[in-house]
Amino acid sequence: MALGQGSMHDVLRALRGIQDLDLDIFRVSRELKRLPSERAQRRAEIDSKIARCEDVEKELSTLRTKIKEIEDDTTIQRQRMRKVETESNKTRGDAALLAAFQHERQSLRRSISEAEEEGLRFVEQADELESRATALRAEVAAEEATFAELSGNVDREVGDASKKLEALQAERKARLGADVEADVLTTYERLLQAREGIALAMLEGRTCQECFMEVPPNVFVKLSRGIDLIQCPSCDRILYLPDA
Ligand SMILES: [Zn+2]
C-alpha cells in the first residue's frame, strides 16, 4: 500500500504510540477470558465430584434395600422353622412325616445361613460405601468453601480488569487520532491477536528485534524509503526503523 511520502512515518509513529497500550489491552482481555473460564472449570470439577457422591449414595440405598429384604426373608424363614419344630413335636412317631419335617428344617437352616452370609457381605459393602460417601461429602464441602472464595476473587478481578480495559481503550482512542488508515489498522490489529499483543518490530541493522531473524537487503531498502508498510518476512510484524 503506497501512501504519500512521509506519511508512512506518521503512520508508524501513530502505531508505536498505541503499541504499549495494545499490549496491555491484549493481556487484560486475556485475563478477562481466563478468569471466568478457570472458575467454570473448577465448578465442573466440583459438580462431577457431587455426581460421584450421589452415585455412591444411590448404590448405598439400593444395598440397604437388599439388606432389609434379606432380613425380612430370614425372619419369615425363622418363623417357619419354629412352626416346623412345633409340628414336628406333634407327629408322635409318624416316621415319614418326621423325615419330611427334618428335611424341611435342614433346608431352612441352610437357606437362613446362606442369607445371613450374604447379608453380612452386603453390610460390609454398605459400610465401605458409607465411609466413601462421607469422605466425598467432606471433600465437596471443603471444595465448595474454597470455590466460594475463588468465585468472589474472580468477580473482583474481573471488575478491576474491566475498569482497566475501559481506561486503556479510552486512552488508545485519544492517542490514535486519525493518522492511520483503516486497512493498515486492520493489519496491525490482526497481528496484535496473532502475535501475543505485539504487532510492531524494530529493525536494527537487518535484524528484526522481535523474532531476531535477518531480513533480506531489499526489505531494509524498502523500509528506509518510508513509502510502504513493510512486514517482517519471518514473523509478519510491521517493521519500523529506530529513531535517528
Ligand atoms: Zn520478525
Give the count of helical stretches.
Answer: 4
CA(first)-CA(last) distance: 24 Å
The main pleated sheet reads as: 3 strands, mixed
β-strand amount = under 5%
The count of DSSP E runs of length 2 or more, i.e. the number of strands, is 3
Poorly predicted runs are 1-5
Short note summarizing the structure:
The protein has 244 residues and is mainly α. It has helices at 7-89, 95-176, 182-194, 217-225, and strands spanning 200-204, 207-208, 238-240.
List the helices and strands and how they pair.
Blueprint: H1 7-89, H2 95-176, H3 182-194, E1 200-204, E2 207-208, H4 217-225, E3 238-240
Parallel strand pairs: 1-3
Antiparallel strand pairs: 1-2
Report on the architecture of this protein.
The protein is mostly helical. It has a domain at 26-176: Helix Hairpins (Orthogonal Bundle), CATH 1.10.287. The protein is 77% helix and 4% strand. Strands 2-1-3 form a three-stranded mixed beta sheet. It is rod-shaped and about 130 Å long. Residues 1-5 have low confidence and may be disordered. The structure holds zinc ion (ZN).
